[in-house]
Design a protein that fits this description.
The chain is an alpha+beta fold and 222 residues long. Helices cover 22% and strands 24% of the residues. The chain has 5 helices and 14 strands. The chain has a 6-stranded mixed sheet with strand order 3-6-9-10-11-12, sandwiched between helices. A 4-stranded mixed sheet has the order 5-4-8-7, with no helix packed on it. Strands 1-2 form a two-stranded antiparallel ribbon.
Length: 222
């Protein structure tokens, strides 16, 4: 019995349009940057943009420059390596993107939180502040690496926010001058005047006992 011959269709020359599932389900958001939002609102923004809320107002974030990414990676490595070797105390080290919620007046409900930031690096000593969403409450150390677009925010808005929230130690890293400005929270809840360390110095990490960062190593190859 002769087998039935199969026939094949020639491939179409017409372009095939593939619908992007992300675009279908998560359309572009038209948010009002003059409006005040909460963390509850923030959780509904399912698009590919990174944002922070400071005082309830949106601050868009862009991808970091190469030098910024290099310093962040190097510093994370130095912190993590020391912590793993010592094993004296639990330290939790995270780098962006990682949500840190800073509730005021002990209002921890999602619709009562107006400050959500993604620090470049943060160190948390109290594991009770960690949950599946990130960190709720002030980290012990926050590091922000300056870029032209974040200069005002890091020195002004975030400085005031971290001070008010009770972040014990705040670093502002300047890749251009290869310096780190360290601010320590005082008993009165105010940051000190700050100490500037340059690339030829070793800098103590006050919240991690026994650790000093060689800034020459941090800024090497930059």
């Amino acid at each position: 019995m002769e087998k039935e011959k199969k026939t094949y269709k020639e491939p179409s020359s017409e372009p095939v349009i593939v619908r992007d599932p992300f675009a279908m389900y998560y359309p572009t958001l038209n948010l009002d940057e003059t409006k005040r939002y909460t963390y509850a609102d923030y959780l509904t923004w399912m698009d590919n943009k990174r944002r922070e809320l400071i005082g309830g107002f949106i601050h868009l974030m862009s991808a970091p420059k190469r030098v910024h990414a290099h310093i962040s990676m190097q510093l994370s490595f130095l912190l993590s390596t020391f912590v793993r070797k010592k094993k004296k105390k639990k330290y939790y080290i995270y780098y962006a993107p990682f949500d840190v919620r800073l509730p005021l007046n002990n209002e921890t409900a999602d619709d009562k939180i107006y400050d959500v930031v993604q620090p470049d690096i943060c160190v948390i000593c109290d594991s009770s502040k960690l949950d599946d969403k990130g960190c709720i409450g002030a980290p012990d150390l926050i590091v922000e690496i300056l870029s032209p677009s974040t200069l005002k925010k890091d020195w002004n808005y975030k400085f005031n926010l971290y001070e008010k929230a009770g972040v014990r130690e705040y670093w502002i890293v300047d890749p251009n001058t290869k310096t780190v400005n360290v601010f320590l929270l005082q008993p009165n809840g105010i940051y000190d005047l700050g100490t500037t360390y340059n690339c030829n110095q070793k800098m103590p990490v006050h919240v991690i006992e026994g650790l000093e960062i060689d800034l020459n190593e941090l800024f090497e190859n930059e």
